[in-house]
Amino acid sequence: MQEELTITKPERVAKPKWLRVKLPTGKKYKDLRNLVDKYSLNTICTSGSCPNMGECWSEGTATFMILGNTCTRSCGFCGVKTGRPEQVDWEEPEKVARSIKLMDIKHAVITSVDRDELKDMGTIIWAETVQAIRRMNPNTTLETLIPDFQGREDLLDRIVAVAPEVVSHNMETVKRLTREVRIQAKYERSLGILKYLKDSGIKRTKSGIMLGLGETEKEVIQTLKDLRSVNLDIVTIGQYLQPSKKHLPVKQFITPDQFQKYEKIGLEMGFRHVESGALVRSSYKAQKHLT
Fold it and tell me: pLDDT digit string (tens) for 60-111?
């Protein structure tokens, strides 16, 4: 008689209670939600189902993604689809500026997919978007959350030239996990970009990392030290959540006490702002980072 084989699936880490998200409420949120739906405005707040959307919108902050929704890279953590992007929409800068005006946004965060197939990697649209927002919304402050542009200083100079109040570039993870998590990116290159931005006169530089991918406390602290070594001003630390079964699994859920510990360590290192918590995302409390 043939012995029956029992196949066991690997256990998934159960999601803890501190990751429960309250549904966004309030008149300001509802008004903005209606505007977004009515005019089909493209915010990453809605497309990314951000847990902080209600809180940010009520404070007059929103995040917009430019250069389409298809990325040329296939990072193991990211839910944005990978493939051949559509042609550049040269009217996009004006569209984004109009969206910000319609929504009466006080502080806008602009981000984008990677466009490695373009000679300028999208930096012309980046610069024109900042300029269009400034023309149409002179009182709106800006943060640009940029890709690495393959570390090319001539392309970074286009961002420096339009002088956003904050320029952000995310490390995403610790050095040991970078190749697995950010396949086409390099840890040292990202550090070099943040250093170059600061040395070029950007007043506020910012980066973010995700936890729960298998990093150790020692590695997180070393990453914070590396970021301070390039005079970074602001760091965000949040919990990685798996976008789909095809993406990297969550190895562990970081406790609120551990997030508080990292915040304390970061502030003691001299960061101007440290946002550290399970639901913290890159643009969380972004308007506060201008102070």
Answer: 788 888 998 877 777 767 767 778 888 999 999 999 999 899 888 899 999 9
Stated pTM of the model: 0.87
Nearest to 92 by CA among 84, 100, 103: 100
CB 73, CB 116: distance < 8 Å: yes
Give the angle 177-182-188 at the CA atoms, nearest 5°: 70
The residue ranges of DSSP E strands in the chain, in sequence order, are 61-66, 70-71, 81-82, 107-112, 141-145, 166-168, 204-211, 234-239, 273-276
With contact defined as beta carbons under 8 Å apart, do 99 and 133 qualify? no
Residue 239 pairs with which residues in a beta bridge?
A: 211
CB 111 within 8 A of CB 44: yes
Residues 6+ apart with CB under 8 A from 96: 42, 64, 66, 110, 129, 132, 133
CB 45 within 8 A of CB 108: no
Sort residue 72 into left (φ over 0), alpha (ψ -120 to 50) or beta.
alpha
Q: Encoding tokens for residue 283?
A: 């643009």
Rg (CA), the chain: 19
Query: For residue range 126-167, what is the model confidence (pLDDT) as tens digits?
Result: 999 999 999 999 999 999 999 999 999 999 999 999 999 999
Q: Label residue 72 exposed, middle or buried (CB < 10 Å: 0-12, 13-18, 19+).
A: middle
